[in-house]
Amino acid sequence: MKSKQFIIPILLFLSLFACTLIENKQFINITITLFWLYAMSTLFLCTAIYLYCFGDFDKKVKNKIANALGNISTRNKYLNVINISSLVLIAFNGWIVSTIVFIVTFMFSRFLIYCAKDKLNY
Q1: Which end of the chain is less enclosed by CB atoms within 10 A, N or C?
Q2: What is the pTM for the complete model shown?
Q3: C-alpha torsion angle, residues 38, 48, 115, 78 (rounded to 10)
């Protein structure tokens, strides 16, 4: 199990959990801003990977892209639990619209990764 992919979601979850416990509105605002940055960067990177798969490259480069996509886990249950717990805490703190945007963003980014894997026949 690779722990690198858990670092940012766990830190965001822990900061959100801490600010929910201490009920500090400024800390909640900062944490939600970090969630927005995380969601938008995820969407940007997944879109770039998807568009990169349509490039006209030789077999060696296509194999490297396919191996990199193989390392991206979209069915990691621990990461899903962390993300869902974070979304529940965001909704609990009253950020309903942000919760909906994050759900759509994460689902769309997973869709792009699935399409990229399908494009490369991985």
Answers
A1: N
A2: 0.80
A3: -30
